[in-house]
Every structure is written in C-alpha cells, then in structure tokens.
Fold this sequence. Notes:
By secondary structure, this protein is mostly beta strands. It has 1 helix and 13 strands. Strands 3, 4, 6, 7, 9, 11 and 13 form a 7-stranded antiparallel beta sheet that branches. Strands 5-12-8-10 form a 4-stranded antiparallel beta sheet, with no helix packed on it. A two-stranded antiparallel ribbon has the order 1-2.
Amino acid sequence: xxxxxxxxxxxxxxxxxxxxxxxxxxxxxxxxxxxxxxxxxxxxxxxxxxxxxxxxxxxxxxxxxxxxxxxxxxxxxxxxxxxxxxxxxxxxxxxxxxxxxxxxxxxxxxxxxxxxxxxxxxxxxxxxxxxxxxxxxxxxxxxxxxxxxxxxxxxxxxxxxxxxxxxxxxxxxxxxxxxxxxxxxxxxxxxx
Length: 192
C-alpha cells in the first residue's frame, strides 16, 4: 500500500492484493481524519467579543472617550484569561501572541446639535499596529444617529493592551454625543 506525498492518503499500489472494500475504508478513514483537522483549524480560532449598550456613555469635551464594554459575549481558545474576563472594562490583553483581526463598532447620537462643522472618529489603540485604520465621518446638522465601524490588524505579544476611543474635533461649539451600543471583536489570525 502506498501513500500520497502531500496529504498521506493511502492507495493500493500495483503490487498490492485487490481488496476494494478495505482500500476504500483506509482512504475514507484517512480523508475523514484529515478533514476534521482542517475543520478544527478553521472553525475553532480563538476569538473574543465584548459589547455594551445597557448604559450610555456621554462625550462632550476632551481628547477622546475610551469606550467601555459591559458584557463579554464570547471568549474561546484561552484568548482572554483572569482579570481580562471581568466586566465592565475598557482595555483587553489577548493572552495568545499573534496577529489579530480587530473590529470595533459604536452607535451614537448627537443630543445637542449646534450649527457647527464637526467630525467624529473611532480609533483603535494598541502597540503592534500592522494596518492602522480609523473610521471618520462628518455628520450633517440634521443627523442624529450614526454607526461607526473600523477593522484593522494588530500584533499582540501577550502583554500589550487594546482599547477603542471615540473622538470629535476640538472646536469651540463642540457638540455633545451619547454612545449607545458598542462592540469589539478580536480574532486570532496567525500565531507568532
């Protein structure tokens, strides 16, 4: 009996006795085990997802507002441990070194709407930024409710922290904002 060089699947070679049922069973068993390993690698990536929305965060002045999360919805594969699982919190330290795909989303409303030109930004903060990004928007005077979302890559060492900040331009007539729902998701893409 021979095996394929790449995946190690068994096959009858020309000198093997003909046992069709046994040969098919050996191939099916090897294929099933290989498929399980591939599926586990895809579907069981370490991930954490935190959210908030039962309390409102208000922002009116200063350099920025660090987003606070109230619920840890999911934490698999040992990605968050110990104190990092206690909620509510504003920063997270992924325990597994590697490259992470990070997505942060906030929904907000402007509850004082002065007639001023403004911009708002959602920005992720962590050392090890690979593909930095922020979401920016210039809402119009009539806009009341908006959602900002940003996705980027970061490399974590097991000790550096991640947080998200909501910011607005610093003009004298700065509007007031109320952040309602928010979420933060980190998925381990590659271990380092």
